[in-house]
Amino acid sequence: MEKRVIAGALALTIVAVFFAFSIFLLHPFGDPGEVQMDDHIIVNTQNETGTNNGVTSIVFDYRGFDTLGEATILFSAVAGVIMIFRRVKE
Amino acid sequence: MTEMTKIVKTLANILFPFTVIFGLYIIAHGHLTPGGGFQGGAVVASGCALLLVAYGSRWVFTRIKEKRLAAFESIGAIAFITVALLGIVFSMMFFGNFLAGSNLLFGTTPATGSTLADFNTGGVLPLMNFAVGVKVIAGLFVIVLIMAYASSAKEWGS
Amino acid sequence: MIEYIPYIAVVCMIFIGLYAAMFRRNLIKMVIGITIIESGVNLFLITLGYREGGVAPIYTSLPPGTTYPEQMVLPVPQALTLTSIVIGVAVLALMLSLVMHIYRKYGTLDVQKIRRLKE
After folding, report:
1. For residue B132, what are the domain limits?
2. In this structure, are residues A33 and C8 in contact, taking their beta carbons and an 8 Å threshold?
């Protein structure tokens, strides 16, 4: 076999060993333990923000700054696509 | 891309208004049911891509210039930032919710626990949902239109 | 062991994506491999926030008799996954535009032939 196939297989094996060790250090599926931020958000959504939807109140009110960054990413993707195809107009 | 036969065009004409109404329902009820700006914008953009496939990208490109669609997207982004900056003016916080609890546009507060859906609640969230929905519709439609037009051009001048 | 099965599924998805991005020669197959890695990471974010026997964190017409912070699923990882999906769409659009440019200039999509044409 070629050299790059052997090197690639060795690298993937090392990454697989690291992943297999770190799966069993996470919390078991269905039992997240003690979460204080999410309990505070679930109990106080309706009288602080005034909506019925917990996920939308996080996306636009408790963590609205991340949505501002995501709107910037959408704008830069559209600007990049228009700039790549600028010479095609015939 | 060339255009398709008459059966495909007739079916696309019938299906397009239902898709747009369904997407606008998902955008508008973002504060009561699962959904919101991003999800509803993706549904409407897929309806517009259906029209693009049925009628051919050359005919659509002569009708809709991409400069106007890019201007629509900028209008959505400016509206989003304006609503966020008004929070500093009225309640001393960036992204502050100044309409919840007062009796202005979307002002009433729902009762705690399981309630029925009341559209008048939500504070500043439905305005942000509409701004992000317009931005996502225009952005995804521009990307699909330009890539479809450029893949059918005969030769690229460079 | 049986409560770690979703994490094993995430690791399998990441490895399939890494294999497709490293060992294939067609450019479109590499792009598909990167998209599969992105889907695996989104799945991992959602499985971190599950509670046993919980309902969605929405207050409109709850099923009667649910007590609220103990029986609702955590809402914060779902909000982070929404942002991650939109970032994946933006990256995919830019990658496919660059692949179209490469195909017009070189006439082929094989990575080892593109490397040897120096002009």
Report:
1. 6-150
2. no
Q: Is the Cβ pair C68, A80 closer than 8 Å?
A: no
* Whole-structure pTM value: 0.91
> What is the number of domains present in chain B?
1
Domain assignment present for B155: no
The pair of structure tokens assigned to B72 is 């629509």
**How many whole angstroms from its chain centre is CA B2?**
27
Tell me, what amino acid is at B82?
T
Retrieve residue B115's tokens.
Answer: 């309630």
- In order of A21, B35, B137, B142, C45, the CA distances from A24 in angstroms are 6, 34, 43, 45, 17
**pLDDT tens digits for C2-48?**
889 999 999 999 999 999 999 999 999 999 999 999 999 999 999 99
Residue spans of the domains in chain A: they are 3-88
Identify the burial level of A43 via C-beta atoms within 10 angstroms of its C-beta, where 0-12 means exposed, 13-18 middle and 19 or more buried: middle
Identity of residue B88: I
CB-closest option in B32, B123, B157 to A87: B157
Ramachandran category for residue B130: left, alpha or beta (phi over 0 → left; psi -120 to 50 → alpha): alpha
Q: Is the four-CA dihedral A78, A82, A83, A84 of positive or negative sign? A: positive
Alpha-carbon span A53 to A40, nearest angstrom: 15
How big is the A-C interface in CB pairs under 8 Å?
112
